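Sample pair:
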Amino acid sequence: MSIADKGPFKILIEPYRREHTEKDRSANHHWSASGGSRAGSKLSDGFHSRRELASGINRTTSVSSALDCYNASVGVALQKFFRTPRLEVKVESPLDTTGLLKLLSPTVITGLDDTRRLKTLQLRVTAKRASIHKCKAKITHRGESDYLVWEASRRIELGKSVFTDADESKDLLQNDDVYLVICDFLKTENSETLTFNFRERTPMELQTWIKLSGEPSLTVQIEFLSEEGPLNKKPYTYRINMESWDKANLVELK
């Protein structure tokens, strides 16, 4: 038993004890409240930070997924672009008898001499990026269309039509130059004729062509088709000068 529990000291000490006990409790309560508040604040801050981190991760994941999708789309588009064939078409200079005889066998071109001279108008066609399957060339003049043949026989018989078994379609290998004959001009001692390179080769006097067209030239359009689809967005347009054998040429109209 302490001295505070004996005699008159109990009366003096008890108020002091109660006073200090109240202060201690108040202090303890204040410390607990402030400490708890700080702890709660830290806990809340922790939850907030984790939510921000999770949100950041979600945003990053979302951006990353979108970027992956974009890259995949670009990759597919590039593959399609480089795998889709493109046709390169250029006008060749007129090829006369001398040049033809250098390129072709005499058995292909017969009956040509100083009195029978041939001039050919043709295009150089090249498949780019990929090979082209069953390419066809459709030529149109004033609404009338037909298909050119790829292997020209050059056989011309004045006064009648000659039929050829040449193909209207051809597989074009990537980067290989192929020559597509548009028409042949034949000059003899007595006439000048124009023959289009169709399966049915029908020579017609230049003066007859000029009379029918109303001018010394023909404007034609050529479309290239294939198993892969159309090879040109719009037809190629050319002017065939048929004023005479000497002036015969092919000009692309832009």
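Residues 86-253 form one domain.
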